[in-house]
Design goal:
The chain is of the alpha/beta class. 41% of the residues lie in helices and 19% in strands.
Length: 291
């Protein structure tokens, strides 16, 4: 039996995640009273004819009963009950924006401010995040990307280390991304902007990539960048980091940064223990025509 407890912050995507679990063939139960969870799980374990894959949504809606879940989890571990915890999280600003867009009220905010309700919720679900087997930060994830991550974790049978990496190209003239953890300046590489036939193309085209890679400097830089990632990523995982934004910048964010960011993405995407996506923030800006 595979039992997954789907929990996390309100507004982080638990409802969407449960629908995705259904698509993966899981039997899903949402917001069951906490005292009934233990009996329900035991019935599933002791009756082979019951669904083998089950996802149970548990969150702050359980109210005063939620702390009882910690004791239940301890008993499950002591008794050998197989289960995993998926914790969905997002930044406070993102959660506030989502609540305002949907015009929903936060379960703990009442008539008060959203940020206070979110802060109270973080305190009350902290024990679940601490015990979570998987933590997904949905702040920048599209629905499609969340689906891909859940499928990879829960149907792929591969090791997953809770680190989601975003590789982001950008243009310095539009500002450094505020959420960047690592910033690499590649303005030392050959600039296709000054070549008429390449000026309006981007690093997604072979012609631009070949121009940026000429002379071997870019290739050497990428080798050193790969080596740095091989060192940093395991240490970030060990430290408990679950979201890493690697920003690669050139002047306009169309040529050199796109080339390097794309190459880094291709190198890292084969690592099954990572969640990863590629974004080109400024690739379409100021394009009067595209070649």
């Amino acid at each position: 039996m595979k039992l997954v407890i789907v929990t996390g912050m309100s507004g982080a995507g638990k409802t969407v995640a449960l629908k995705m679990f259904e698509d993966l063939g899981f039997y899903c139960v949402d917001n069951m009273p906490v005292p009934l969870l233990e009996k329900f799980a035991e019935l599933l374990r002791d009756n082979p004819g019951e669904p083998e894959n089950v996802a149970m949504g548990v969150d702050i809606r359980s109210g005063a009963e939620l702390p009882q879940l910690e004791e239940i989890l301890d008993r499950w571990r002591a008794g050998g009950m197989p289960f995993q915890i998926l914790f969905l999280d997002a930044g406070d600003e993102v959660l506030i924006k989502r609540y305002k867009e949907t015009r929903r009220s936060h379960p703990l905010a009442g008539n008060g401010r959203l940020d206070r309700g979110i802060a109270r919720e973080r305190e009350q679900v902290a024990f679940l995040k601490k015990q979570a087997d998987y933590i997904l930060d949905t702040s920048t994830l599209l629905t499609r990307e969340l689906r891909e991550e859940l499928a990879r974790i829960f149907s792929g049978g591969q090791k997953y280390e809770n680190l989601f990496v975003t590789i982001l190209s950008f243009g310095f003239k539009y500002g450094i991304p505020v959420d960047a953890d690592l910033v690499f300046d590649v303005r030392f590489l050959p600039n296709p902007y000054y070549v008429d036939e390449l000026k309006y193309k981007t690093g997604e085209t072979a012609q631009v990539r070949e121009y940026v890679m000429q002379g071997g400097t870019c290739g050497l830089f990428l080798e050193k960048l790969y080596d740095m990632m091989e060192f940093l990523i395991p240490n970030y995982i060990k430290e408990g980091k679950n979201q890493l934004v690697i920003a690669v910048g050139c002047t306009g964010g169309k040529h050199r940064s796109v080339t390097v960011a794309s190459a880094l993405y291709e190198k890292l995407k084969v690592r099954s223990e990572l969640g990863i996506k590629l974004e080109h923030r400024d690739i379409e800006k100021d394009n009067k025509r595209m070649g």
